[in-house]
Amino acid sequence: MKRKHEEAVGEGDERCEGCVKRPKRDDDEGSSDGQEESSSEESDHIELMVNTRERRVNAGNKMAELMDDTEQEDEFYKNTYGGTFFEDDADDAFESPVESDHDEVDSDFDRSEAEDEPTSEGEEKERPKRRNVYKEPKLGSANKRSLLEKNKKWVIARMGGPTVAANTVSPETQAQLLEEAKETERLNLASLQKYEQFELERKKKRERANVVRKLKPPFISHVDGRDGKWIVVPEVKNFQKPERKAKLLCCVTSRPAKYRDPVTGLPYATAAAFKVIRERYVEYLKSVKNNAAVTAWLAEDSQLPLSSAFSS
């Protein structure tokens, strides 16, 4: 609370010129001279805005109320916690040592030459105690700011410029472009034909691979059941034995006959046998009586088929 109060007072001093300063406590009187010297040194190289801007109309109106509130808070904490919040500022600077696995020699390199020099107790007492003054955070180095400005300018220029490259006129004539288009079309058609042929071959291979070959019955099957395995044999079909064709023999020579007389239907083997068959047939017709057709046929001595002779 003490530190917050001092920061509030410091900010109030920078905001207004006529604000009332807080009265110092007894434990701060010893360090007032050092604080004034340090504040004077900081004011030499820091330009405050209060020196340049005009005074506000309502400046310092709430400072008295703020001072009363802070005094009441100090009395409350002093009576309640035994004044532990108002100990010397040197206790606030104490920090517990940080345990680390690194070698202790590394901490010696972080010390400056001024810290390595021995100091006496008198010098430590004469050393002024500095106050914690609020400082505005730095916006960054000049290089970072310049880089940021360049990036902004580059983005703005990129957004304002053309996003698509301008069309360029080709020096080639229309006839040359048409010839190139024809050649490209020919190559594309050839490639398409090769691709279609390749796809047809793949389709045929898939069809051959997907064909399910089934065995046509009858076939012997093996059945595996709970009681054992059986072999199922289909019924044997009984085929009738074909009749053996009788070999025709010549009716004259008794040899295997190769021909058959279309009139009498008798088989014969040679031409002489055929002549004998016809002579016998004529003799048979002569024995037939009371048939005008047979008589006329015999009279003309013509060789007429039997069917035509009897059709009349």
Automatic annotation (TrEMBL):
InterPro entries referenced in this protein's UniProt entry, alphabetically: Vps72/YL1_C (IPR013272), YL1_N (IPR046757)
Disordered as annotated region, ranges: 1-142
GO CC terms, sorted: nucleus
This protein's name: Vacuolar protein sorting-associated protein 72 homolog
Family affiliation: Belongs to the VPS72/YL1 family.
Superkingdom of origin: Eukaryota
Biased composition (Basic and acidic residues): 1-27, 42-57, 122-138
Positions with biased composition (Acidic residues): 28-41, 101-121
Pfam families named in the record: YL1 (PF05764), YL1_C (PF08265)
PANTHER family tied to this protein: VACUOLAR PROTEIN SORTING-ASSOCIATED PROTEIN 72 HOMOLOG, YL-1 PROTEIN TRANSCRIPTION FACTOR-LIKE 1
Residue ranges constituting the Vps72/YL1 C-terminal domain according to the UniProt record: 248-277
